[in-house]
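Objective 1.3, modelling of assemblies. Example input:
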Amino acid sequence: MRQSILFTKTRREPPKDETFKNAILLIRAGYIHKEMAGVYDYLPLGLRVIEKIKQIVREEMDAIGGNEMLMSSLQRKEVWEKTDRWDDKNVDVWFKSKLANGSDVGFGWSHEEPITDMMRSNVSSYRDLPAYVYQFQNKLRNELRAKSGIMRGREFLMKDLYSYSIDQAAHEKFYAEAAEAYHRVFERLGIGDVTYYTLAAGGHFAEFSHEFQTICEAGEDTIYLDRKKGLAINEEVLTDDVLKTAGLKREDLEEVKAAEVGNIFSFGTTKSEQLDLHFTDANGEKQYVVLGSYGIGITRIMGVIAELFGDEKGLIWPQEIAPFRVHLVVLGEDEAARTDAEEAYKKLVEEGVEVLFDDREDVSAGGKLSDAELMGMPYRLVVSKKTHDAKKMELTTRADAETQMLELPAVLRKLK
Amino acid sequence: MRQSILFTKTRREPPKDETFKNAILLIRAGYIHKEMAGVYDYLPLGLRVIEKIKQIVREEMDAIGGNEMLMSSLQRKEVWEKTDRWDDKNVDVWFKSKLANGSDVGFGWSHEEPITDMMRSNVSSYRDLPAYVYQFQNKLRNELRAKSGIMRGREFLMKDLYSYSIDQAAHEKFYAEAAEAYHRVFERLGIGDVTYYTLAAGGHFAEFSHEFQTICEAGEDTIYLDRKKGLAINEEVLTDDVLKTAGLKREDLEEVKAAEVGNIFSFGTTKSEQLDLHFTDANGEKQYVVLGSYGIGITRIMGVIAELFGDEKGLIWPQEIAPFRVHLVVLGEDEAARTDAEEAYKKLVEEGVEVLFDDREDVSAGGKLSDAELMGMPYRLVVSKKTHDAKKMELTTRADAETQMLELPAVLRKLK
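Predicted structure (C-alpha cells):
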C-alpha cells in the first residue's frame, strides 16, 4: 500500500485525555480514533492488526472443529429472563432500548444465552453433538469506567466459542483441547512466553475457571505465578486449598500484574436446563447438553501487545500481526532513489511481501523516519541517494534497531 | 468442510412466521436463524456467503483507492446534533440508550456524521485530499415493520464508503468512478444483467442521487427502466423534466418492482460546513470538503440473490458467492463408495476447490440429495456403489440440473 493514499496522519503530541500507553501510541500512530471513553474507531492500520489477530484465532478454532457464525447484536429480553440475567441488578453492563412497537430490546454484551437458545433448533439427538460454535462479535458493555484504552472498552471485539457436549467427560476432553489451542494462539501472537494458564473463580457453575493472563503492568488483575511450571493462580482464589489443587507452593510464586487475554469456563448443564437445550441419548433418554464457553479479547490483545512491546519511539509489532511486514521509506527528491524505491516496491509486492511504501513527497527525511518508528512495522527499508550510490538498501529491524546494508535480491530473500 | 461437523440442520417445513422466499429458503437450508422480526443470526453457511460478497466489494473499493476501516457502533449525540439528525422527529429509526454516567448514546444507523467528524483529525491541507474511506458495518435501525426477511432488517450489514474531495469537479470524477466500480461489483455477484443505474431523489443536498436497483418481485421500489439503454428512473422522481434530463422517453419505459442494492449520493459541502471539516487550499484559503456517500447492502444482496435464483427445491448460488463450489455427496454405506468419496474430498481440497462433503452416516440417499438441492451449491458430485462400479462420478449443476458422468481427474479439471 502506498502511504500517499492512506488517509490517516501521525501525531507528535500525545492525546490529552489518555493515560495508557496503548491508547497514546495507537492514536499517535493513526491506528485508532477515540469516539468517547472506551469507544474507538479502528483506522486502516488498526483494522489490519485486528484482522491478523482474528485470522490466527480463526485457524486455531477451526483446527479443533469450530464452526464460525455470527450472532445478532440485538437481543430478546425473554431469553435472558430464563437465566435471570436481564435484570440490571444481576447484570450491570446492559445497554437496553425499545423497539418501535414498545417492547424491550438488549444489545449483546455476551451471547451465551442467545446462542444456546439458537442451538435448540439444531440439537435434538446425540448424533447432533458435539457442536463447537464460535464468532467474532462486537460486544457492547455499559462500563462505568473505561480508561485503559482498548484494553477495556464499552465496545470491543471478542472471539467467543461455545462447546455443546454430550456429557461431562466429553466436555472435559474438549476443554483441554481448547486450552491447548489457546496456548498455540498466544504463541503465534508473540506473547506465548508471557501468558500463563491461570486458575480463577468458576462463578455459579464450577469450582474453577481458567484464564490466560499476560504479564502486563497495565493489566487489571493480580496473579501469582510459578514461572518454572508455567502456571498461575488469580489472587481472587489464592488459598492453601487451591495451591494444593494446583500443585503449587506459595514460596515458588511471584506476584505480578496481568491482563486477562482469554478465559475458558465450564457451565455444566445448568444453563441448558434453564434454556431447555436437551437431546435424546443413544438409549432414547432425555439429557441436557453440557456447555462450555471460551473467550479471547481480540481488541484487548492488540492493546496488550502495544503496551508490552511499544517503546519511547512508538509501536513495535510482532511479525505475525503487523499491518505490514516492511515499511519502505524513500528519502529526498533524488530521481534515482525514487526509481530504486519504486522498483523495490514492485518486487516486494510481486513476492507477496506486505509492504507499506512511504512515497509521500512533502515530508522531511526526519519526519518519515520517526513516523516509521512510531508506526512500528517489523522492518524498515530505507532508500535514498546514499543507498543508490552504494547500490545497497538499508534494512533495519524495529525491535532491536539492527541495520544491514543489502542489495535488493538479498532484501527480498530476507523478507519473503 | 465435512458436513458431519457442521452444526446446522436443514428443515423440510417452512417457518410459520416468514412470507418471503429469501427468509424461508435461508432458514430451511440452515443459513440464517431468526432472533426477531428483521434480526437474524448468520450461521456458518450464511456467514460464508456474506464474506464472499464482502470480499468482492472490498476488492472493487480498494481498486478505486478506498481505505477500509471500522467505525464504532456507539455514537455521540453531539455530532448528530450539529446536523440536526439526533432528534427522533428528524430521524425515526434511532436506537438510543444511556451511558452509566447518564449521558445519551446512540447506536449507529448510519455513519456519515461520525466518520466526517473523525476526518477532521486527518484533513487539514489540500495535500490530505482526496480521501476515500469505507467500512463494512452492522447497522442498527429501529424499523417499525421488518417483514421481508434479510432484505430489510433492524440489524443488517452494509458497506458504506465516503469520499472527501477538494472540489465539485474532483467529486464528480470520483462519483463516476464509484458508479463504474458498483457496476463491476454487481456483475461479479451475478446480478449485473438485472441491476440498473437508476435516477432517484437527491434529498436535501443535490437534485438527484443514483440507486442501483435489481429487478425483483420482492423489492420495495417501483422503477421505470429502459432495458436497451440500461438506465432507470425511480417512480419517486418520474416527471417529464427528469425524463428529459435522463435522455429517456416515457414510451420506452417498463414498470418493474426492484430492490435497491446500492446507492450513491452527493452532499456538496453542506455537511462539511455543519461539522466543520475544512482544509487550506494551495492558495492558503480555507475551503470546505466536498462529500459523497456510497452504500451497498451486503445482507440485502444475499436476500435478493436468494429471491432471484431460488427455486421450488431450494437455493441456487452464483459461483462467486456460493459457500462452497461443490457439494460432494456419498450415498449408501458401501465401503468402496466411501473410499472413492474420501479420495475425491482429499483431491478437491488439495486442488484448492472449496468443497462441502456430506459424509453423514445416518441420512438416507433421498435426504442427502434433497439437502444438497436445498443448500444450493453450484455443483453436486455424487459418489455411490453405482458410480464406483462405473468408475465415474456423477457431476450435476444446480442451476440447470445437467448431469455428466466423469472420471475424477475430469471432475477436478472442471471444478478447479
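Chain B is about 30% helix and 30% strand.
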